[in-house]
Amino acid sequence: MQPTQHCITRRALLSGLAATAGAAVLAACGGSSTTSPTQSSGSTGATPAGVATSAAAKPTSASGSAVASAAPSGTADFAIPAAAVKLPTDKVDFHWVDSGDVKAFFWNAFFPAYQKAHPNIAVQYDALPWNEIAKVVPLGVQNGNAPDVFQIPLALTAGQAVAQGWVQPLDDVVPDFANWKKGFPVGSFATGVTDFNGKTYQLPFTTNKRHDLLLYNVDYLKQAGIDPQAKRLTWDEFRAVAKKLTQQGAGKYYGTIIGGNQTNQWEGFIRNLAQMAGAPGSNQSGLQVDINYKTGEYNYTADQYLAAIDLLLGMKADGSIFPGSANLNAPQARAQMPQGSAGMMLQGIWNIPQWTHDNPTYNFDIADLPVPNTGTPLPLSYGPGGGNPLYVYAKTKNAPIAGDIFHYLGTAEGQTQWATITGGSDPPNFPQVIEQAQVDPRARKALGIFGQTMHLAPSANVRNPDWSQAELEKKAITPDFGQLLQGIYTGQVSDPKKAMQDLKDRSNQELDRALKAAQAKGAKVSRDDLVFPNWDPMKDYTDADYAALKK
Question: Contact, 524 vs 464, CB < 8 A?
């Protein structure tokens, strides 16, 4: 039976958003202390010119020129196991690029230990913001000198990276590949997600069962009389709290902050709130992103998406969002929180070890995302595959080194070390190792939230292996969802409803074109592959559910 009260209208969501919620709403959030917060020096407020850049936003090198923070004390001493593959004996330079964040903590511990075990291998590790990855990696591929291991730009799908010859399969790179692959949890690998043409191209070494959280300054919210632990904030309360914090800060700090220079930050803000408010959909990449699997239609014009945009614009109109947010990348926004520039932020669990290590006196906590004002909030969905996917460059001469490291990351030992060094704040793909790892209590709380508020969604890739051919045909649409949201926030796009309808129309056109191109190459695919009438967002979508579709 389909759960009730899932569909929440835009009118219901907006009941109260246009008005100042005031003391009644704030009182409902709980808490009454008036203890003054500790104001960090250097919290200069409005302009991004003086913004500190976090370690994860800066290039780091394991060969001695590191500019990022080192791993937390006491976690860097671990033994590198004997190589499972024949490694080069001559001196080699090995280059690894990813988006940093909490990953930098692990690599800044791992790579020096790896170099010590293999002195002839000099590792350069660059932790870059996604905007820089979108420049550095394509240019390297174009010039034939891309990093040996990298993450692909957010606008590119795995299928496109494979089709364009950027990456190589792991089958002949990772030693003892078949047994290694079997050690991963069910769902870690899937055709059209990690695997193409019978080969595996992607290492899913962390889980994608995670979403953004409400991260907040405990002292600021305590002074405002707010306790998100006592009661989960509604949309109205989130807006009202942000406004009160801004008034309380008197120009020294603001209610919230967004790394809006990265368009995926706008996407996450709107998508997560809207889907919880009753617009169930996909968080998977490619042709399926923002698809409602009940109908096979894109969610962009759903009442909940438009209402979430109205909420964002309302908070901007209140003056509650840190000025200059549109010019900050995610690491820069993150770095402003311990400096006292904002009271709340919707970002990921990976902030926990960075703040704990770099700002040990910063008093922060985490809570789940704000929920709609009425109705039962939906869980968020996640798809097959994993988080932080890594790829091996197609033309690298150092594939054995990549294979050796990938193999380690896919073992219980490697996963346990990952969980311990990151404090569990970028959850490993092997859930059993969490119990053995030293995990920050706030990260453990977050993992509990994910367990209660996320379910495995269906996937056209799993339902129909031919779907991967359609993903290979996909072309990027411009402006995309994140770019439009950025334009709406900055005022460059004046009519959100019209813009979202245009986005939906263009997305449908590209979907139809990609399906037609795939069909011309023999793929048996159609829009019907996106419709799952037996999907219940309140439950995991299982093999039995796929089987039921065939009856």
Answer: yes
pLDDT, tens only, 292-309:
999 999 999 999 999 999
pLDDT at residue 431, rounded to an integer: 86
The residues, any chain, with a CB within 8 Å of residue 511's CB and separated by 6 or more, are 287, 527
Cα separations in angstroms, 134 against 98, 152, 260, 391: 11, 8, 16, 15
Q: How far apart are CA 503 and CA 495, in angstroms?
A: 12
* CA 419/CA 428 separation, integer angstroms: 6
Q: Does domain 61-208+385-439 have CATH number 3.40.190.10?
A: yes
Burial of 227 (0-12, 13-18, 19+ CB in 10 A): middle
pLDDT of residue 41: 29
Backbone angles phi, psi at 263, to 5 degrees: -65, -25
User: Do residues 405 and 113 touch, judged by C-beta distance below 8 A?
Assistant: no
Domain layout of the chain by residue ranges = 61-208+385-439
Select the more confidently predicted residue: 277 or 69: 277
CA Rg value for the chain? 23
Size (the chain), residues: 551
Quote the pLDDT of residue 53: 28
Q: Give CA separation, 157 vs 153, 192, 529, in Å.
A: 8, 10, 19
pLDDT digits (tens, 9 = 90+) for 113-167: 999 999 999 999 999 999 999 999 999 999 999 999 999 998 888 888 998 999 9
Which of the pair, 209 or 94, is modelled with greater confidence?
A: 94
CA distance between the termini of the chain: 18
Q: Is 86 exposed, middle or buried (0-12, 13-18, 19+ CB in 10 A)?
A: exposed
Q: How far is CA 522 from CA 107, 513, 516, 525, in A?
A: 43, 15, 10, 9
- Burial (CB < 10 A; 0-12, 13-18, 19+), residue 479, is middle
Dig out the tokens for 330 from the structure: 């995610």
Tokens read off for 242:
């942000």
DSSP 411-443: SHHHHHHHHHHTTTSS-BS-GGGGGTS---HHH
- Give the amino acid at 489: Y
